[in-house]
Design goal:
single chain, about 300 residues, mainly alpha, 3-stranded antiparallel beta sheet
Length: about 300
């Protein structure tokens, strides 16, 4: 099929599926406290780029936005997301920006009085392993936005993990093997658009955290990033998103991927489900077309890896 016919077919497919999206998909945009798409401040834009921090909202039980309490299933038991509203008693209202940056950059709690070994080290279900790459000005802007979120009084739930996996001091050793802190460095051999896409994908949107297999310790297998995971977020499989023709998204092009991140619509007319639909609704659909194109450019530039996720 020539390119002209292909473009016309794709336009018709998107038009009719887009009309269906208005009815089936986008009503979810009214949920929560999502603001207008236009005129987002820098902090809220970064918040949306992260997927709207949707794991911190218990949508299923109609929880308050960002008030935590959502069960995040892992192979080691359930971890409950925390309250990140600026409530002084149960949220992060008593934190300062340094506490926030330490949590995002190092995966550590704000208690400065304890020895390092006794500090609260976060479990990597909180993806600080990706957020560590966020640049400090962006972390500061994100912090300023979170301070404007309506506070919610919601006590954090106790995790349901069995020993020794619930011993937080084990995270010190886990980090030695599985964590390298530091901001994302631009690749001087790549274009500005490619680097922008890599930064958004690997730092803010933390795509590899959900779409990569993990080792027996729960750390990412660095040699197979983006190739999918059978134990993805909330215990559900996450697909291979490398541009492999057989098992990944090699049949897509960059415009397909950018449109998917904006609308939730796949090239075959189906729509995103589960957590992916959530992060699109709460987050990615707010990004500019230029940023969505940059993310798509980066993802489609990955080496294709044939790996089926079941």
């Amino acid at each position: 099929m020539n390119s002209s016919k292909r473009k016309k077919r794709r336009f018709r497919r998107r038009f009719y599926a887009g009309m269906a999206a208005v009815v089936l998909f986008f009503p979810a945009l009214n949920a929560g406290w999502a603001g207008e798409k236009q005129g987002l401040g820098p902090g809220e834009y970064l918040f949306r780029a992260s997927g709207g921090c949707s794991c911190h909202t218990d949508f299923q039980n109609k929880g308050r936005p960002l008030a935590g309490g959502r069960a995040l299933k892992t192979p080691y038991g359930d971890v409950f997301s925390t309250n990140i509203t600026p409530d002084n008693a149960s949220g992060i209202g008593n934190w300062n920006v340094e506490d926030f940056i330490r949590a995002m950059r190092l995966g550590m709690g704000p208690d400065k009085k304890r020895f390092f070994i006794l500090r609260k080290h976060y479990f990597p279900v909180f993806p600080y392993t990706a957020f560590t790459r966020i640049r400090e000005p962006d972390l500061t802007a994100l912090w300023r936005f979170l301070k404007t979120v309506p506070p919610a009084a919601a006590i954090n739930k106790k995790d349901k993990m069995v020993p020794p996996f619930n011993w937080r001091f084990n995270m010190i050793f886990w980090k030695w093997f599985n964590f390298r802190p530091g901001e994302y460095p631009d690749d001087p051999d790549k274009s500005a658009q490619w680097n922008r896409g890599a930064y958004l994908s690997r730092a803010l949107a933390h795509c590899e955290e959900c779409h990569s297999p993990r080792n027996f310790m729960g750390g990412l297998k660095t040699g197979t990033l983006f190739t999918g995971s059978k134990d993805g977020p909330e215990g559900r499989p996450a697909p291979n998103i490398t541009p492999d023709e057989k098992t990944g998204i090699g049949s897509w092009d960059s415009s397909d991927l950018a449109w998917f991140l904006k609308s939730g619509q796949k090239p075959n007319g189906d729509f995103a489900e589960g957590l992916m639909s959530e992060v699109i609704v709460e987050g990615y659909q707010y990004l500019t077309d230029a940023d969505l194109d940059a993310v798509a450019l980066y993802i489609m530039s990955l080496d294709p890896v044939e790996r089926m996720v079941e």
